[in-house]
Amino acid sequence: MSAAPVLSVEDLAxxxxxxxxxxxxxxxxxxxxxxxxxxGLVGESGSGKSTTVLALMRMIRPPGxxxxxxxxxxxxxxxxxxxxxxxxxxxxxxxLVPQGAMNALNPVLSVAAQIDDLLLAHGSxxxxxxxxxxxxxxxxxxxxxxETGDLFPHQLSGGMKQxxxxxxxxxxxxxxxxxxxxxxxxxxxxxxxVLRTLIGVQKRLGAGVILIGHDMALxxxxxxxxxxxxxxxxxxxxxxxxxxxxPRHPYTRMLIASLPSFERRxxxxxxxxxxxxxxxxxxxCPFHPRCPRADARCRVETPAEQTLADGRRVRCHYATEVG
Length: 323
Ligand code: SF4
Hints:
Oligomer: single chain
Bound molecules: iron/sulfur cluster
CATH topology: Rossmann fold
Largest sheet: 8 strands, mixed
CATH class: Alpha Beta
Radius of gyration: 21 Å
CATH architecture: 3-Layer(aba) Sandwich
Number of strands: 12
Mean pLDDT: 92
Number of domains: 1
């Protein structure tokens, strides 16, 4: 039997007002995250991954708004909670490791001062020396020496900054960690080290993690469950192994086929075409203009989500088709 989810998201929708009408950036996303589970959300730019994560933190700003849905974080209904409950939940229940560590850190405060501010803002009653010991332990937990606390952001490498962001994200032991492309600006070796650090702290806390990215190879290594987003919708979600071994949505198939392999090392297979406009989505299946399997039905009938025998959920009329 699986554990009670630390996070459950149901029919989440985020719209942005535009002169041409609402842009449906997130459109009916549903998933659950168990304690200790690592979920990877993949998709092209503009597919709704980052907006989903911001909505979970209640950080959507106008002209955006959460149009419908439910987000439950343990026993807290995040979409109905008061602004002060939401503020308290950030870091203590749900925390974000941001995409650009450079911009996330305050350039005029030392690392220790920034973590200390966070502890104080969340009501730490410990004495200064006890808080500093806690900060040193947090830094140690992400592979940084205690002296790093005395440095300023400009004195840190990209990888060190990202580790500081992880230390801050886990400072109050959240049950859910959101990581929005945390390694995108780093070289491959540092990327791996940062991901290992993230996995290490996640395991220690027993937290659930959502990793946002577009790198399927990275997801294959990191995630227990992978969700593929297209045009604001989760078009396929399921256990990583099953999804990679037998992708059921044509878009997932194309994402996996576009991965470089030893046999195809000199031929790059991209996905032809562009994602659709979120204001004026094509009728029928939003993927049909790019889909090699599309037929007349796909151009007029929007596919409902199907649950397959292995628990995978797919939005494609032909998800159970062999081949
Ligand atoms: Fe392709 Fe049709 Fe499936 Fe959409 S419903 S992914 S167009 S086969």
